[in-house]
Design goal:
The chain has five helices and seven strands. With about 230 residues, the protein is an alpha/beta fold. It has one domain. Strands 1, 2, 3, 4, 5, 6 and 7 form a seven-stranded mixed sheet that branches. A hairpin with a 6-residue loop joins strand 2 and strand 3.
Length: about 230
């Protein structure tokens, strides 16, 4: 009896240790489907990119919260730098990221205002990550009770809104994209995980967001001085 109990305990412990997961993503909602038309001959312009990264657990957070520097998606600025290749008439640019702490830092707010004044265009880019508190709580509960024998899904939604403003502060164009990931948790998925890690799927979504919108901006010649 003792050996049976010990064996069962070790089996349960092993299942927790090798708990695996695999993440899959949806296609991009609102994707730009027209052929890209490069804007090589356009006059060179300067652009300020203002980023906001918001996160909300619905049913738990009352409002979306701005991410801190440490919580911005890993490798984001590499992703942004790669997507800039879609825009061919940018001569110079600057970036600014909004943080909740800016409320208590007038110097940073003043810096942002000064950057707006010296650029031809401003792109305000807001990223949102949303998940359901109830679904994640119940999923975690069932996953624990079932010792990860059955696969449990966890869904997270992603969206981006990009507003292009002219030098006088008027809105020129707004763009929206969305996608989601579903992470399945089960012990045996440890063998699938190396091919579908969550980090890679998140990065793929951000890459698609920026490349697709920048490609549409390039084709529509939005960054053109009148």
């Amino acid at each position: 009896m003792y050996r049976t109990s010990t064996g069962l305990f070790l089996l349960l412990l092993l299942l927790f240790i090798v708990q695996g997961c695999a993440t899959f993503r949806t296609e991009l909602g609102g994707r730009f489907t027209q052929p890209t038309e490069l804007n090589y001959g356009a006059e060179k312009v300067s652009v300020l990119f203002v980023f906001s990264h918001l996160r909300q657990t619905t049913g738990y957070d009352a409002i979306p919260k701005l991410d801190s520097k440490r919580r911005v998606v890993s490798g984001f600025y590499d992703i942004f730098n790669d997507a800039l290749s879609e825009l061919n008439n940018i001569e110079s640019y600057a970036t600014f990221t909004n943080y909740a702490s800016d409320v208590n830092e007038p110097e940073r707010r003043a810096l942002r205002d000064s950057l707006v004044d010296v650029h031809d265009f401003v792109m305000e880019i807001e990223f949102r990550r949303t998940k359901s508190f109830a679904k994640h709580f119940l999923g975690s509960l069932f996953s624990t009770l079932l010792v990860t024998i059955l696969p449990i899904p966890y869904t997270e939604s992603y969206s981006v809104t990009l507003d292009v403003y002219g030098s006088e502060g008027h809105l020129i164009k707004r763009y929206n994209r969305d996608a989601s990931t579903r992470k399945w948790v089960q012990a045996l998925l440890i063998f699938v995980y190396p091919f579908h890690p969550e980090k890679r799927k998140m990065e793929e979504i951000y890459v698609d967001f920026l490349h697709d919108i920048f490609r549409q901006i390039e084709t529509e010649k939005v960054l053109a001085l009148n």
